[in-house]
Design a protein that fits this description.
CATH superfamily: RNA-binding S4 domain
Number of helices: 5
Number of domains: 1
CATH architecture: Roll
Shape: elongated
CATH class: Alpha Beta
Helix content: 25-40%
Radius of gyration: 26 Å
Length: about 140
C-alpha cells in the first residue's frame, strides 16, 4: 500500500495539519531515502523519511502507509523513530544555550524591570561627577 507524503506526515502526527506538511515538503525540509520530496510523492513501508525541524533532523522509518489520521497509541504500528542520539543532544544544547528565560507565568517585564536591566547593562565609563575643567593657576 502507498500513501501521499503530505497525508502520511499528517496522519502519523508529525505535522498538525496537512497544509503545514505540504509547505514543509515544498520548502525542502522533507526527504525520502535521502532525496528531497514533493507533497505528492508516495511513501511505502520501509522508506526512511527525514524531517528537518531546525535545529534537529528527525528520521522515521515507515512501517505502514496510511492516509487516515490515527490515535497516538497506534503510532508504533505506523512509524519507527530512528533519529540518532546526536540530534537529540543538539536539541538539548540549543535549549541550554538559548537566552535565559523568565520564570514561567511572570509575563513580560514591567517598565521598572526594563529600566533596571538597562541600568545594569549600560556601560559605565567614569564617575558622572568627573569635572573636565582644568584648573590653571
Amino acid at each position: 500500500m502507498e500513501a501521499r507524503l503530505d497525508k502520511w506526515l499528517w496522519a502519523a502526527r508529525i505535522y498538525k495539519t496537512r497544509t503545514i506538511a505540504a509547505d514543509a515538503c515544498k520548502n525542502g525540509r522533507i526527504t525520502i531515502n535521502g532525496a528531497q520530496a514533493k507533497p505528492s510523492r508516495t511513501v511505502k513501508a520501509g522508506d526512511e523519511v527525514g524531517v528537518r525541524k531546525p535545529p534537529v533532523t528527525y528520521t522515521f522509518r515507515v512501517k505502514q502507509a496510511i492516509e487516515k489520521r490515527v490515535g497516538a497509541k497506534l503510532l508504533p504500528d505506523v512509524l519507527e523513530n530512528i533519529t540518532d542520539a546526536a540530534q537529540y543532544e543538539l536539541l538539548e544544547m540549543s535549549k541550554i544555550s538559548g537566552f535565559v528565560n523568565r520564570a514561567r507565568g511572570t509575563g513580560r517585564p514591567t517598565k521598572k524591570d526594563r529600566r533596571a536591566l538597562d541600568e545594569f547593562t549600560a556601560p559605565t565609563f567614569m564617575d558622572d561627577d568627573f569635572d573636565f575643567d582644568l584648573d590653571e593657576d
